[in-house]
Amino acid sequence: MKTGKSVLPPTAEPSRKSIFQDRNFVLFLIGQCITTQGLWVQKIAMSWLAWSLTGSAFWTGLIAALNFAPAFILGPVFGVMADRVNLRKTAVTLNLMMAATAFLLMMLSMAGQINLFWMVVLAGANGVLASAMTPIRLSLVPVIVQREFMSRAVAYAAMNFNISRLVGPAVGGVVIATWGTGAAFMINAASYIPMIFVLATVKIHVERAPDAKSKRVLAALVDGANYALHHPMIRSVLALSCFVALVGTGMVELMPVFAEAVYDRGVTGLGMLASASGVGAVASTFMLSRVRSDPAAFQRVTVIGAFAAGCGMLGLGFAPWYELAVVLVAITGFGLTAVGVGSQTALQLTVDNKLRGRVMSFWSATSFGGIALGGTMLGAISEAGHIQYTARGSGILILCAAVFGFWRLYRIATNSSKPATETAK
């Protein structure tokens, strides 16, 4: 009889490997990196152009909101589609269409024909395409990586997105100041080309893809909604992420107002504030990549993130100096990213694969819909009063949500320990 060395079970083997040995994931990450850089360059251009054309916090918030509002209305329907369609072909088509809208923005801007009407129309079009792409993108991750790597794949994809938040706005500020907004839109249009190539070549493991549904769209949508509403963890995570997006991330969409109206720093100051948020976001996703693949652990991270975001936002409402505001925006970015990525990962690790597209579309609908409604609502409030007062109110509301989240986690922990205690007696 052999003794001594223990033999690891076969299921433990994948944990020895690095996710970066997976060619599929590396290709996807590189393509996403280039595309998201372009997205953030365009985002800063759209925000600055809206503020330059109108000088209005309301219109600046509304233009930003239109990039997200369709996700709230159409996201769940697109989630049903994500559970049925060919992921590769759909992703390629959507990327081509988003490149076309960026190209049109470039042409209008360079011709001097860009105005509020075109900004509203094209921001809305981008919002519809993005709301269709989000459940497709979220459904792609599980079909290109193994479940053991799921949490790391989501965290690294989010880190990549947030590095783009760090670099993209700063690059966008320089590009706009040097060559104008048309050049920024041109960069975004070109950035879709590598991602389209990646989507056409990456290997998709069909056996791990969500199962197609034969039900009608409405019936399939109701099934997904019932599943989400009756699952305690999914329900609470969706509620918190929606609320924080509404009063927190919606406030971040008004950074052009802080940069110009509060601190008088112009487009370069706006780029620095957006990049500071990116620094906090990158730090947050690095932390998240170290969290074990457990839905409960990521739920706790989501609540902690809400607390950090509330503190940062409340401080921003009182900050008298631009340099202090940069630090507080970084703290806010750290917390908001912990909420967004933590909630997304908790859901990805929990949801039934057959319902993944629909549940993740609810996440994108509540998160992006919250940003859209929040950006518009907070912009209107800031139009009537000082924007720093609005930031203080947002910070207090997020802190209240975080305290409630901590209380719920305490109750769950207490209730789960009761049976073990009673058994011991």
From TrEMBL:
Q: Where are its TM segments located?
A: 25-51, 57-80, 92-111, 117-141, 153-179, 185-206, 237-258, 270-289, 301-319, 325-347, 359-381, 393-410
Q: Does the keyword Membrane apply?
A: yes
Which CDD domains does the record associate with it?
MFS_MefA_like
Topology relative to the membrane: Multi-pass membrane protein
The record ties this protein, via Pfam families, to: MFS_3
* Name of the protein in its database record: MFS transporter
Could you confirm whether the keyword Transmembrane appears in this record? yes
In terms of InterPro entries, this protein maps to: MFS_dom, MFS_trans_sf, Tet-R_TetA/multi-R_MdtG-like, TM_effector
Query: Which compartments does it reside in?
Result: Cell membrane
- Which PROSITE patterns does the entry mention? MFS
Q: Which UniProt keywords apply?
A: Cell membrane, Membrane, Transmembrane, Transmembrane helix, Transport
Residue ranges occupied by any Major facilitator superfamily (MFS) profile domain in the UniProt entry? 24-417
